[in-house]
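Quick one, tokens below:
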């Protein structure tokens, strides 16, 4: 393994924590632990820019994640933190952006398009209301308007790494062969290995949900837009980011390929062009494919490894990694404190900085 970031750490009596995984879940967990006073080392197979998190569109919204009750609670915490970070978008990658969630109109005039089980999430979204006809793109019959964080993921991952280092953390590049290897010499392991948990734990219930995106030059779109059924393989969403307009997407269960498919890319552009015709003529900047780490339910729990080391598992977040990252990180901190000990001088759960 090779060291990428390292600074001197204080508090020699504080338990040392090894966090496995350099994506948004691992880095956020590491930041919260380090800022609570623990000495933290992140071990990651890939650099942050090469993780699935870097490919994500970055819209803060619970998507393809179970169980809903916990997911909503975690999402609400992230909504709070990302909302605070949105005050410094160039530094943190987070912005508050208004957009439209498209839906089919209900025959009874009910809440078409609002997914059952997410009531607390909808109640917390700033400005959630039915879209008026003049606010809907062409070809969209109905929808809802809201203001939610939209995160430039490469920038946000960089922000998390800087915060971790500032708090005394270390990031090391390298593969972890086993949880026992990660536990060597530390008091606790936090397993945020995502899809890698399938082999590392091992946990065969973890599987990929492949997502493909197309990045184009933004022809002037300033708001996000989605027309995505929770269980559909093919969706349409348009996300304005500083680096271009993100067009999506797909959700292919069990597909392992990370190579963009030209036919799929063309279909994505065509779907988005139904609502925003100008994107059909926009210059393509990049194609991206990521593998969402799906599981029937997120695993966020502590256990003891055979040598007695505490292992907190935090994986299986599907398509909602950034959306639940801060809430899950708070839960990781709670579990570490309960199973190990509070860090020396700890004053509570860190806030956004």
């Amino acid at each position: 393994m090779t060291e990428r970031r390292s600074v001197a750490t204080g508090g020699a009596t504080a338990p040392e924590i090894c966090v496995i995984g350099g994506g948004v879940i691992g880095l956020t967990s590491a930041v919260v632990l380090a800022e609570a006073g623990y000495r933290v080392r992140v071990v990651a197979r890939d650099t942050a820019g090469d993780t699935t998190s870097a490919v994500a569109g970055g819209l803060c919204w619970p998507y393809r994640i179970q169980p809903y009750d916990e997911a909503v609670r975690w999402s609400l915490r992230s909504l709070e933190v990302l909302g605070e970070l949105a005050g410094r978008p160039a530094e943190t990658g987070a912005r508050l952006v208004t957009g439209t969630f498209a839906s089919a109109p209900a025959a009874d005039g009910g809440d078409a398009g609002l997914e059952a089980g997410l009531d607390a999430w909808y109640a917390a979204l700033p400005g959630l209301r039915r879209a008026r006809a003049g606010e809907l793109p062409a070809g969209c019959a109905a929808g809802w308007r809201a203001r939610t964080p939209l995160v430039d993921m490469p920038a946000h991952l960089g922000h998390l790494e800087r915060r971790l280092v500032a708090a005394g953390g270390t990031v090391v590049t390298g593969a972890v062969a086993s949880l026992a290897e990660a536990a060597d010499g530390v008091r606790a392991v936090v397993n945020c290995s995502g899809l890698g948990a399938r082999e590392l734990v091992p946990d065969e219930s973890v599987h990929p949900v492949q997502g493909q995106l197309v990045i184009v030059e933004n022809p002037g779109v300033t708001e996000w837009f989605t027309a995505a059924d929770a269980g559909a393989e093919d969706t349409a969403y348009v996300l304005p980011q500083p680096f271009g307009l993100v067009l999506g997407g797909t959700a292919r269960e069990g597909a392992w390929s990370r190579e963009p498919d030209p036919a799929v890319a063309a279909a994505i552009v065509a779907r988005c062009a139904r609502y925003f015709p100008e994107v059909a003529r926009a210059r393509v900047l990049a194609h991206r494919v990521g593998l969402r780490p799906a599981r029937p339910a997120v695993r966020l729990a502590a256990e003891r490894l055979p040598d007695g080391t505490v292992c907190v598992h935090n994986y299986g977040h599907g398509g909602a990694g950034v959306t639940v990252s801060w809430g899950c990180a708070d839960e990781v901190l709670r579990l570490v404190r309960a199973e190990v000990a509070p860090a020396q001088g700890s004053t509570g759960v860190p806030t956004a900085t």
